[in-house]
Amino acid sequence: MRRLSCIFWLGLKEMMSLRRDWVMMVLLAWSFTLAPVMEATGVATSVNNASIAFADEDNSPLSRTLAAAFFPPEFQPVVQIEPGTGAARMDAGDFLFVVAVPPGFEKDLRAGRGPEIQVLIDATAMEQAGIGASYITSILSTEIRRFAIGADLAQPQPLDIIIRSAFNPNRDTVRFAGINALIGQIMWLTTILTGAAMIREREHGTIEHLLAMPLSPFDIAVAKIWANAAVVLAAAALSLGFVMQGVLDITIAGSSVLFLCGTALFLFTATALGVFLATIARSMAQFALLVMLTILPMLMLSGGETPVESQPAWLQAATTLLPSRHYMAASQAIVFKGAGFQTVWPEFLWMALLGAALLATSLVLFRRSVAQDG
Amino acid sequence: MTSRADSPGIRIAEISHRYRKHVALDGISLDLLPGRLVGLIGPDGVGKSTLLGLITGAKQLQAGSIDVLGGPIGNAAHRRRICSAIAFMPQGLGRNLYPELSVRENLEFFSRLFGQGAAEREARIASLLTATGLAPFEDRLMGRLSGGMKQKLGLCCALIHDPKLLVLDEPTTGVDPLSRRQFWALIGAIREQSPGLTVLVSTAYMEEAQSFDRIVAMDAGRVLYQGPPEDLRGGAEDLETAYQQLRAQGKPPPVQLQPAAAHSGEPVITARGLTRRFGDFTAVDHVDFSIARGEIFGFLGSNGCGKSTTMKMLTGLLPISSGEAQLFGRPVDAKNRALRREIGYMSQAFSLYGELTVEQNLQLHARIFGIKDRAARVAELTRRFGLSAHSASLAAALPLGIKQRLSLAVAVIHRPRVLILDEPTSGVDPEARDMFWALLIELSRNEGVTIFVSTHFMSEAERCDRVSFMHAGKVLAEGTPKALMASQSADTLEQAFVAILQAADPPAPVSAPETAIRARGSAAGGLSRALAYARRETVEVLRDRVRLAFAFLGSVILMLVFCFGISLDIDELDYAALDLSQSPESRAYLAEISGSRYFRLTPPLSSAAEGRSRLVSGEVSLVIELPPDFGRKLRTGEPAEVLAIVDGAIPFKGETVEGYAAGLHQTFLTAQAAARGTRQPEIARIEPRFRYNQSFESIAAMAPAMPAILLIMLPAVLMAVSVAREKELGSVTNFYVTPTTRLEFLIGKQIPYIAIAYLNFLLLTAMTIAVFGVPLKGDPLPLALGGLLYVWAATSYGLLIATMTSSQVAATFATTIASVVPTIQFSGLLQPVSTLEDGAQTIGALWPSSYFLHLNVGAFTKGLGWEALLPDILALACFGPALTLLAALVLRAQEK
């Protein structure tokens, strides 16, 4: 009981300190308001404003129809270039896609000779190249088929495929990017807040002062963990309500409460990581360098930036041990797909287990590092 | 060297200086004659350091004027002319020295800054090392020197260029009395040899000032007195009392506090053979003492002699290596919480929460100790320790003396029986010290609290019941102050201490260095100074394991993570099918999908709802529903429909899956038609050709793209940290007060980081080829040149940001954000430049990563050569010089 009350008051002290630290307060405010908004509305992930050129040697009504079939926002207006210059223009980075229509294309088509259109794709632009290529192929073949059916050259397809996009029928990237950004901010900020609070305590010598009182390293670390976790959780809840749902107009398919429960569970992991890094780093500067080397990979590999399925199998196995990956999976299921607890409990269990292991390790290390301090 | 007409000393007229709202100097005017030893006296925070910083030109003048060595120091041209005649040793032992460099390396660096040739340098260093007795330690790292040795090294570095004005800011604070005496003897010898030398020194030890030619007593940014020390002292007992009287403006000095030497005999604290080792260094070496109840026991010694370590062992903060320590007859145990309730501890630096108010600090500690009558106790302490007027102020904003009283109030809040106080009064003005001691004596005499206090002030040690002299981890002597003085037949405690030290650890004799060396070496000027910085920086970074690891491992780790993690190839996605038709045709359809490398079939679905729930849980990314009449319709050629439900939660993944599904559907149709021989002639073919990367593996695009972000972020951060570090640790003063120009400083520091970053470039290039198997198709030469220009630009960018930040942490985060964000947004890393909006394209054109990205990807994947890459190289060549010049313009050549 006495210990609990000490931990409570120490945690409250932590919050009072944070309130006076205007740099951290600005960082906190920025991270949960403007930063996710900018990220969500900034770069669109799929094909957007792609540059496309036509090297049209046919110059027939059909080839002109094809060129007119590409619209913003996916594509920039088609630029007509001299035949034969496509490769060079692509080398210079002017265009991602060059469509080459051969001479006599429409005539050959009408004659049933099955002519060929070439689409040059800059494969160094990974994200746009793959999806863009299937867009272009599909647009071109739809236009050609429509022309052919109109000219009585072909029958409609006997078997059609209807593709429905579950959970996000409009391919809205704001929702995905917004929630993703929020989750990223939660990871960054929690670790930095907790770690910095720990190091500040050491650099100012107050940690010794605390340890000379009837407090254990465990009490001190737990006070920091609950206080910083509570602050981030509150900020995340406000951001979810006012910024995500309010400003960005994002619908949360599942339960916001469940999402925040998952967040709370994850926060223990992230705060424990902060304590852990703070025990390794000898100074604030080293901590800053360490944070970059740990949080960045954690974020990149969690499945938010690119799907987990795209990692090599051995890496997928390794990233199972990243709490951030389970948090990301649970959050995506809850927010985008409306999953309930019965669906996400395995992820919650993973987070709890990994968080507990990390917390235990960092507490042991913290105790040891205190003992070694001169 | 003799006094010359062109060195008329220092004339200070009406200068004022403020830091934000705080007034540090308030209209000071002074005339100091050349060839004198002038002392600034006063406690911490009265403006001594600010004044010295202004005189040496380390700080920028705000108001008023100062003439130094025949011209205004505010005039940049004059400052440059005379700065090689000034030497400045800033406050804090060895603050302008480099802890990772050896004694000799430190001296060599300073010698190079003043353009001395090799022969001259050797001669000067040898003479200085011999004169100060440092010669046996020339290879020891500066960080490992004792306080006294650091102080001597600081002086050597200051004297290396024969200055005419030597400015020393608190050179003796925290140094043992013997080293202090030696230091003044050395200064005396040097002054005898160079009568023209003006020495300006500040000190918090008033007794040192007795021997100065002239003293300037300061308080609260004003001059209280200037003149010979004898006049100030007048009839007072010593200078400290005289200063206090002067400060109190006629008020009588506080009552002398001599505690009665009466205490009962039972020992409260005992130490027997107490020892603490850190690695192979023994900080505390077999220390014994026994402190009785109600006794005030003083621990006297220099910084780093083991006082704090002993105290930490007694509080249980540090484990004991060997020997034993007991409190109230029980061994000290870090786990014993009950024991800790008996101790009040005050650590060396102010260690309360500056961001909390006085009241909040007291409340917090009362709560931690679970004090029942909390409100009453807090109120009582506030009143008794004279904190009432401050109870709502933030602790950080309090004057030092009041902070110490607050610390003491917090330390006694739980009514401990033992107080352990580690240098509680360092830096506090004499008046506040007296008040503090009055409280201590009251606690000891009236409440029977046992007090164990460490100090380096002799006047405080005299007030203790017993003192113990500590030096280099050992207790040299112990007893009542009177007995100690008697044993050495000394008049003062200081003399006794000096005598004991001399007997225990006789120091190397000191003498004035030879000044006959006049060989002005081939002063190559600017370039040699820049190279001096480069050489020093290289040694430092090679000895800093964390930065070195970050420099090389950082790029390797991030390269691996990015390349494996951001791969956009999605294969072997799980899918499930609801086959309501169960016909050969439907099985053939599913076989087509399962047969591709993109999808893997999972157990069949029994209902549409099950498909939905598997999509929700993320088990599958695609659900195919085949209608009951699928087989029949397909056989008869009636129009049929397949339903594909794609997990669209992640937009990129959804679109990819959609593309795969549509493609496989088409393949199935073609295969069906071919099998039945009813193949319609194809109306037209669309032939996609993936250029540069036929197999369309993302690694071939990703691996050459990643260095563009890594090679700007890591070098820029390292560079920025290195500059911010100098600002934070104080060695940047050397740039302020030596003839180094801004460009020399920046370029000198930049050279090693360009080398490190270039090695990184080669490493990443090798990884791209060897680890990720991406062949270098283009010409390696333009790539190698472009890489060099790019890392030059990156380090210059780091310099620019560092000039605008003041701490290492700020530099790290600011540089990371300021290098990563534009690279991701505008360089074409994620979105090709040609697809950016016009505004973003313009920013991209002004950002070096755009060019390097094009260059690296071009050379690797596109197989481009000189002709195609030349525009990138030309563009990259502009950034480095432009950014360095910009940084030089922004960098302050003086402190604010």
Can you characterise this structure?
- The complex is a heterodimer of chains A (374) and B (896).
- Chain A has 15 helices and 5 strands.
- Chain A is an alpha/beta fold.
- Chain A has a 4-stranded mixed beta sheet.
- Chain A is elongated.
- The two termini of chain A are 32 Å apart.
- The mean pLDDT of chain A is 86.
- In chain B, the strands form 5 sheets. Chain B has a 6-stranded mixed beta sheet with strand order 5-6-7-3-8-9, with helices on both faces.
- Chain B contains 31 helices and 24 strands.
- In chain B, helix 19 runs antiparallel to helix 24 (698-729).
- Chains A and B meet through helix 1, helix 5, strand 4, helix 7 and strand 5 of A and helix 9, helix 10, helix 11, helix 19 and helix 21 of B.
Write the layout of secondary structure elements.
The complex is a heterodimer of chains A (374) and B (896).
Chain A (H helix, E strand, L loop, with lengths): L1 H19 L1 H11 L1 H8 L10 E5 L4 H7 L11 E2 L5 H6 L5 E5 L3 H6 L5 E7 L3 H25 L8 E8 L6 H31 L2 H6 L5 H31 L8 H25 L3 H17 L12 H7 L3 H15 L3 H32 L2
Parallel strand pairs in A: 1-2, 1-3
Antiparallel strand pairs in A: 3-4
Chain B lengths: L9 E10 L2 E11 L4 E5 L6 H9 L6 E6 L7 H7 L3 E4 L13 H11 L4 H15 L14 H13 L5 E5 L7 H17 L4 E6 L10 E6 L2 E6 L1 H5 L5 H9 L19 E12 L2 E12 L3 E5 L6 H9 L6 E6 L2 E2 L5 H4 L2 E4 L11 H11 L5 H11 L15 H12 L6 E4 L8 H18 L2 E6 L2 H4 L4 E6 L2 E6 L1 H7 L5 H12 L21 H18 L1 H21 L7 E7 L4 H12 L3 E3 L6 H10 L4 E5 L3 H7 L3 E8 L3 H26 L8 E7 L6 H32 L3 H5 L4 H29 L9 H23 L5 H19 L11 H8 L2 H13 L5 H25 L6
Parallel strand pairs in B: 3-7, 3-8, 5-6, 6-7, 12-17, 12-18, 15-16, 16-17, 20-21, 20-22
Antiparallel strand pairs in B: 1-2, 1-4, 8-9, 10-11, 10-13, 13-14, 18-19, 22-23
